[in-house]
Design brief:
With about 100 residues, the protein is of the alpha+beta class. The protein has two domains: about 30 residues; about 45 residues, no CATH class. The strands form two sheets. A two-stranded antiparallel ribbon has the order 1-4. The protein has a two-stranded antiparallel sheet with strand order 2-3. The radius of gyration is 30 Å and the shape is rod-shaped.
């Protein structure tokens, strides 16, 4: 009788052969690759900078304005005592 057609022999091959190894390997790869998109995704960023004069000194209290030219939406902040500014939650313009 051909051992390839024997149901008992088929079960032995699944648990004793390469099929089990490759099955476990494929499962591990699938789980590793499918978990990547589950990480936190953010659709905004921030802008950080320093305002300096021509001599390289900081400019405290300067007004910094960013404008999205396609919609004329703008954000305004003031620099701190060291001339630094941070504009948080800046959303990119996504055409759609």
């Amino acid at each position: 009788m051909n051992s390839r057609l024997n149901p008992k022999r088929g079960v032995e091959l699944i648990f004793n052969g390469r099929l089990l190894f490759w099955g476990v390997f494929a499962l591990i790869c699938f789980l590793a690759l499918s978990s990547q998109p589950a990480q936190a995704q953010v659709v905004s960023g921030s802008m950080v900078g320093n305002v300096m004069d021509a001599a390289g000194g900081s400019v405290p209290g300067a007004t910094v304005v960013i404008t999205l030219t396609t919609t004329n939406d703008s954000r305004t902040v003031q620099t701190d005592a060291t001339g630094a500014y941070t504009i948080s939650t800046v959303t990119p313009h996504l055409p759609g």
